[in-house]
Design brief:
This protein is mainly β. The chain has 1 helix and 14 strands; from the N terminus they run E-E-E-E-H-E-E-E-E-E-E-E-E-E-E. It starts with a strand and ends with a strand.
């Protein structure tokens, strides 16, 4: 089935990544001239997920079914070069790649609010923003994310732009 894409980031005219519902990530290295490559988030547990089987089968082989955990919807994508990028999404999800999306690693989020946007600079300084006025910041490429106090703002924040290394603009719902 076609992917439900919710966010896109292009590093240049040829290299773009798009994120979407259920951990979907798509990539093009030719500006979309050929079909986009699949670079989806990995299934929880490294991809080994038992699907529910009939009770008799489970009883015979003494298997405990492990139901698949839902992958997050991805609302924000940002790449600082052709290999290193982040996606953010539902439940405070943050993932990073250093190989153009062939593999993804989870980064710990300081809260569980949906994150709708992310913006990073080449020095590893970044901001992600999301629902309920949530703003989180990293100064070490996401090794540690911390909450940024944002008193009085309860709006869902949806877009971020750095005008320079010290100033960021964040937009959201009224």
């Amino acid at each position: 089935p076609p992917a439900n894409l919710l966010a896109i980031n292009c590093f240049d005219a040829l290299h773009c990544w798009a994120g979407g519902a259920g951990g979907v990530v798509r990539y093009t290295e030719d500006g979309g001239s050929t079909p986009w490559q699949i670079r989806d988030l990995p299934a929880p547990g490294g991809g080994l997920i038992f699907r529910p089987w009939p009770d008799l089968f489970l009883a015979l082989f003494k298997i405990q079914p492990v139901l698949a955990q839902a992958l997050p919807d991805l609302y924000g994508v940002f790449f600082i070069n052709l290999t290193t990028g982040w996606v953010v999404g539902s439940g405070g999800a943050i993932y990073v790649t250093n190989d153009a999306g062939l593999t993804w690693n989870v980064q710990a989020s300081p809260n569980g609010q949906n994150l709708n946007a992310i913006y990073m600079n080449n020095a590893g300084v970044g901001i992600a923003a999301g629902n309920g006025g949530t703003i989180i910041r990293t100064v070490d490429a996401g090794v540690l994310w911390s909450l940024v106090p944002n008193p009085g703002v309860a709006a869902n924040l949806r877009s971020i732009f750095f005008s320079d290394s010290d100033h960021a603009w964040i937009a959201g719902d009224a």
